[in-house]
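Q: What residues go here?
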């Protein structure tokens, strides 16, 4: 089994510099074999200038990082050559053909870092997210998040471990420790842990749009100008606009970036009753989009005098912004929302600004979670702790209580990778790219 791995670390395509990265015990031997002149004494982290002598020759640098002071924790070599895909591929082939190294799997460098204790699972996830950062938030904030989340989980773990200790003592020495006092003693700790978990989970629900983009759904009755607004936002005729009610029968999405946040605007079929099959299916889809929206723009036009929200969307009130369109036709009276003319592109910028303000008000410094996986693991811990509290109201034996808290502990450990399974690793490393 060949343990040394090699891959191109820079993105596919041409660039000024391209890096081929090696990790494993044979790294230095490979450098010795292909790089000339090869220095007599090698210093950790120093760049050496010379030539890579393979089927293609190229001038550049190589650098050696000695274990454990490298990204993966193993001996690592990087060749910094010219960023031509042809050169880099032939360098990798030369190295693989030498029999000293094999091609790395996607994410394998980071996986090695994880297994060698250089980083934890949360940090591995952060690396992948930072690599694919698409906006300011992801790039700036994520680098701090992994430390925050790990710290949060460790603090919580410590508290629960203390509680488990009380319960275990009551199980071991029932004569000294009253079983009911052991449960009572752990109640405030479980309560407090649950509170902090709830807070972190709630903030995630409000801020997850920063990772995947905020979904803004444009809804309303047929013909009010929803598709016209989508087109105004897109800056081109994305959706078909006609004066026939029921023109849009499917959801149409347009992605834009505004002040560093990604927004996906979704135009939907106008909501009305008793239509044909296609339109009804479209309307059903509109309702689905509404459920999934981070924010809803509910649109009226100046033909209407009743500006109340329909029954079906009223319960989503907290995230609805009312918009009235076609103000070029007449001035809406008594309307307490945003006034626009999609056709004349009037007020559309103010609308975008309002949408942006809605999201920028959310305080994401409180957010610790940045993947679904982390969310589900913490949520499982939360559910178990809630269960503990309800059971404790009746009668909870220390054995059962301890088993529950251990289950919560395990969920917490799975967040930072102290407990890992193949499915956890797959979910973290499944979308890594080569060379990372
Ligand atoms: N005067 C005026 N007409 C508008 C304005 N916005 C849209 N319209 C017109 O209103 C009609 C309907 O516009 P659409 O954008 O297709 O409306 P919709 O809400 O998408 O309609 P459905 O897809 O049927 O639900 C078209 O004839 C548009 O030209 C506006 O600001 N002013
Ligand atoms: Mg439409």
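A:
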């Amino acid at each position: 089994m060949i343990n040394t791995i090699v891959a191109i670390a820079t993105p596919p395509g041409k660039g000024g510099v391209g890096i081929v990265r090696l990790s494993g015990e044979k790294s230095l031997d490979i450098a010795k074999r292909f790089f000339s002149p090869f220095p007599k004494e090698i210093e950790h982290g120093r760049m050496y200038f010379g030539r890579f002598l393979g089927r293609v020759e190229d001038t550049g640098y190589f650098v050696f990082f000695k274990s454990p002071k490298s990204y993966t924790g193993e001996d690592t070599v990087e060749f910094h050559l010219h960023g031509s895909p042809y050169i880099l591929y032939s360098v990798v082939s030369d190295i693989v053909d030498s029999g000293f190294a094999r091609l790395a799997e996607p994410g394998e460098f980071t996986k090695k870092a994880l297994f060698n204790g250089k980083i934890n699972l949360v940090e591995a996830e952060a690396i992948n997210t930072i690599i694919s950062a698409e906006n300011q938030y992801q790039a700036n904030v994520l680098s701090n998040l992994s430390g925050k989340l790990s710290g949060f989980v460790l603090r919580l773990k410590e508290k629960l471990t203390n509680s488990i200790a009380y319960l275990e003592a009551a199980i071991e020495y029932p004569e000294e420790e009253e079983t009911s006092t052991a449960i009572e003693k752990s109640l405030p700790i479980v309560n407090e842990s649950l509170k902090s978990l709830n807070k972190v989970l709630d903030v995630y629900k409000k801020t997850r749009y920063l990772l995947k983009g905020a979904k803004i759904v444009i809804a309303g009755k047929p013909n009010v100008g929803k598709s016209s607004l989508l087109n105004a936002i897109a800056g081109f005729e994305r959706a078909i606009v006609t004066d026939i009610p029921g023109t849009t029968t499917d959801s149409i999405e347009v992605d834009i970036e505004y002040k560093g946040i990604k927004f996906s605007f979704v135009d939907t079929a106008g909501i009305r009753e008793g239509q044909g099959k296609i339109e009804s299916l479209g309307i059903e889809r509109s309702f689905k989009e509404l459920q999934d929206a981070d924010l809803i723009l509910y649109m009226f036009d100046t033909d209407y005098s009743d500006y109340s929200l329909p029954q079906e969307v009223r319960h989503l009130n907290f995230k609805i912004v009312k918009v009235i369109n076609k103000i070029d036709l007449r001035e809406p009276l008594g309307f307490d929302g945003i006034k626009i003319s999609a056709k004349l592109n009037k007020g559309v910028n103010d609308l975008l600004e309002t949408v942006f303000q809605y999201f920028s008000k959310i305080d994401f410094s409180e957010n610790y979670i940045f993947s679904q996986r982390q969310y589900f693991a913490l949520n499982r811990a939360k559910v178990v702790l809630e269960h503990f509290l309800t059971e404790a109201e009746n009668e909870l034996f220390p054995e059962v209580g301890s088993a529950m808290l251990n289950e919560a502990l395990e969920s917490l450990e799975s967040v930072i990778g102290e407990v890992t399974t193949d499915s956890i690793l797959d979910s973290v490393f499944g979308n890594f790219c080569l060379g990372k």
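A: Context that may help when evaluating the design: The mean pLDDT is 88. The first helix runs from residue 27 to 34.
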